[in-house]
Amino acid sequence: MKYRMLLGLLLIVVLQPVQSKEWAELNEEQQRLLAPLENSWSTLPPSRQERVLRGAERWNQLTPNQQNKMQQQMNRWRDLSPQQQQRIQERFKRFQQLPPQQRRQLRNAQRRFRNLPPAQREKLRRRFQSTTPEQRRQMRQRFQNSTPEQRRQMRQKLQQDRQDNQ
Prior knowledge:
By secondary structure, the protein is mainly α. It has helices at 2-15, 28-33, 46-61, 64-79, 82-97, 100-114, 118-129, 133-145, 148-165.
């Protein structure tokens, strides 16, 4: 009986629609941060308003350095063409659909790439760009089909090659 009552209360809370918030209901800091949206605020669906408000809250928790970095990233995004933005969004959706372990592997590979010296990163970019899509697919397949030990050996060989080229 207790569980039914608890479940009923939970459903009432969860299924309750998100209420739209009027601009005047926002506090001073929220209005300052969201000023560019003032004219369109009332036209935003309540769920979008909630997401924007959560984003503003997260923004306030960032350090000035983090805010500056985030602003630069937003400016870079704004400067992309709609086609470029769409390609990035599609890639992100595909990434999100990967199993957690594969996402972790990709993040680690990206981190290792970023930690390389700029000249080495550029060399790898040129090498990658000179391969055909079919060659890339084959390399990916070979890597995915290898055992963890074989992958470790491949990474060691790459590191050795890097050291030899420096």
